[in-house]
């Protein structure tokens, strides 16, 4: 299993870091047997697993349950868990309670969106011995403030703010930073200006690592087509086709066959 020191050394040796989201034990068990570096129990689980329209609906109870399932399925992977919506905004004790629940459920680090108003809490969590991954650019918990899923950092003021926030996250003690939906050039600039690694999603090829949502890279939703996504499978077709064939076999009474039955 990698650890926070590996993140730094990977940056120094220019060996990219791979991260995928994981929300449950059965996929965790499969991913545990891959070489992928790191699993993210992202709050995107509110959308992908629970059908909500945004990550705002992820609660600490949900996150805790999914982290525990992933930890049971992937005992050999470094697991990062998202701090859910507003869990860092109700003061240090409330944030620490959330961190405690995620770490005791099996996470090895927490991820926190944003910088400005989070720096003190990030610093305190790091001082308490818990690794923190930052998250800048498109921060889905602020989606209503950002006006939708849009590429961030498109004007000079936004570029300056993201650069400043990235440096502040490094100074606060983050061991890495996710950069979501920013132009390639900004992904490159932030990555070169930090000594901690950046992990990009829609941030171009020059970040220090890449992350994708597992269900997206597996092609589970044919209607989700962001520019940054590469599909490695057609899970939608595989699942739909397989279950349709099962249904046909049952209705045609060709399943179970004699060799699939206890004689
Ligand atoms: O919640 C999530 O899945 C994330 C990734 C998109 C980075 O934060």
Task: Write structural notes for this entry.
The chain is an alpha/beta fold. 41% of the residues lie in helices and 14% in strands. The protein folds into 2 domains: 4-232, Phosphoenolpyruvate-binding domains (TIM Barrel, Alpha-Beta Barrel), CATH 3.20.20; 234-263, no CATH class. Strands 1-2-3-4-5-6-7-8 form an 8-stranded parallel β-barrel, surrounded by 6 helices. Helix 2 crosses helix 4 and helix 4 (60-73) packs parallel to helix 5 (92-105). The longest helix is centred in the middle third of the chain and has 17 residues, at 156-172. Bound molecules: 3-methyl-2-oxobutanoic acid. Residues 21, 40, 42-44, 82, 178, 180, 201, 211, 213 line the site of 3-methyl-2-oxobutanoic acid.
């Amino acid at each position: 299993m990698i650890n926070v020191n590996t993140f730094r050394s990977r940056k120094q040796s220019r060996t990219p870091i791979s991260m995928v989201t994981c929300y449950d034990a059965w996929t965790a068990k499969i991913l545990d047997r891959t070489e992928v570096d790191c699993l993210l129990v992202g709050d995107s689980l509110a959308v992908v697993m629970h059908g909500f329209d945004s990550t705002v609906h992820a609660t600490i109870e949900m996150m805790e349950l999914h982290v525990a399932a992933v930890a049971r399925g992937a005992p050999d992977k470094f697991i990062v868990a998202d701090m859910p919506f507003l869990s860092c905004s109700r003061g240090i004790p409330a944030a620490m309670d959330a961190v405690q629940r995620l770490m005791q459920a099996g996470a090895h680090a927490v991820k926190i969106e944003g910088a400005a108003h989070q720096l003190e809490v990030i610093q305190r969590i790091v001082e308490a011995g818990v690794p923190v991954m930052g998250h800048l650019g498109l921060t889905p918990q602020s989606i209503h403030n950002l006006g939708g899923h849009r590429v961030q950092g498109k004007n000079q003021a936004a570029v300056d703010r993201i650069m400043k926030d990235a440096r502040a996250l490094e100074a606060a003690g983050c061991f890495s930073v996710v950069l979501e939906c920013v132009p390639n050039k900004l992904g490159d600039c932030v990555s070169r200006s930090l000594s901690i690694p950046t992990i990009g999603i829609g941030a171009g090829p020059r970040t220090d690592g890449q992350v994708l949502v597992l269900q997206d890279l597996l092609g589970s939703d044919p209607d989700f087509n962001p520019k940054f996504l590469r599909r490695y499978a057609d899970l939608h077709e595989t699942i739909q086709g397989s279950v349709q064939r099962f249904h046909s076999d049952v209705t045609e009474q060709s399943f179970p066959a004699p060799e699939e039955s206890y004689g």
